[in-house]
Specification:
The protein is of the alpha+beta class. The protein has nine helices and eight strands. Helix 1 crosses helix 2, helix 5 packs across helix 6 and helix 7 runs antiparallel to helix 8. It is elongated and about 65 Å long. The chain starts with a strand and ends with a strand. The model has no long low-confidence stretch (mean pLDDT 91).
Length: 265
């Protein structure tokens, strides 16, 4: 089974959680979860769509029609296939059903719903028309984030990436450099070059290094960051030494610029 986390008492993958958190932010709505994923057929009415990752149900209780429409619009904006489900459509209470497009751990039923969504359908057995707007139907989480980067012009410093890989000290006055190094590996994560676990380990070691503030602790954090750089080098056919030298810098600059980052030396 694919790796999952627990968020607010429900199972899901980290990507789906991040999508939901962002949908909450841009909608300003609570979006309370009533069902997650990885439930192994526990809810027969879901027809297997929640057996894998990427699947969520959101409560529509106490939401106005306008709020439901806004919730669905913003869920779709961040990359969910999302529909308003009514009791008249099946054996369930009113809710919003969501499937994370391009999630790597979707069940077969959920993957079929994504295909239906892309065709303008409701994802139900009756293959009816989609009752939501189609503005964001082509969006994925990755395309949404790329759009944010283009809009915000996220700044990435190649020297900060190299500094992190060498085990550099990120003290309070180096917040910009730290965020630059973080932005680079988060982008690698979105491209599936490094894993969620890789990121978590680095963040933990970074936090520990700040607390201890010893050369050994910073070196330990740097080793993890260099390991992520090494994964990037392997993926793109560069010499896998974990060092951000001229060739790796040139490749990173080209790739990050392509994804609308503002890359500086």
């Amino acid at each position: 089974m694919a790796t999952y986390i627990e968020f607010e008492g429900f199972r899901m993958d980290a990507r789906t959680r991040n999508m939901l958190v962002e949908a909450r932010r841009i909608s300003g709505l609570t979006l309370r979860i009533t069902q997650g994923g990885f439930n192994n057929g526990a809810v027969s009415a879901s027809a297997g769509t929640h057996d894998g990752g990427g699947a969520l149900d959101i409560s529509a209780h106490y939401m106005t029609d306008a709020e439901i429409a806004e919730a669905i619009r913003r869920l779709r904006q961040v990359g969910f296939a999302a529909w308003h489900r009514m009791p008249s459509q099946g054996p369930w209470v009113e809710h919003i059903h969501c499937i994370a497009v391009d999630c790597s751990s979707l069940s077969k039923g959920a993957a079929n719903q994504v295909k239906a969504y892309r065709k303008g359908k409701n994802g139900l057995a009756n293959n009816g028309p989609d009752d939501g707007d189609q503005l964001y139907v082509k969006n994925t989480w990755e395309s949404y984030q790329a759009g944010l980067a283009a809009k915000n012009g996220t700044r990435v410093s190649l020297s900060s990436i190299a500094y992190a890989a060498r085990g550099g000290y990120f003290h309070s006055g180096q917040k910009v450099a730290e965020e630059s190094a973080r932005a680079a590996v988060r982008w690698m994560n979105r491209q599936k070059v490094v894993s969620d676990r890789d990121l978590r380990i680095w963040e933990t070691r970074l936090r520990d290094a700040k607390a201890a503030d010893t050369k050994a602790a910073w070196t330990y954090a740097g080793e993890q960051y260099a390991g992520m750089v090494r994964r990037y080098q392997v993926r793109f056919g560069l010499f896998p030494d974990g060092v951000v030298g001229p060739k790796t810098k040139a490749h990173l600059k080209a790739m990050l610029t392509k994804y609308s980052f503002r890359v500086v030396a």
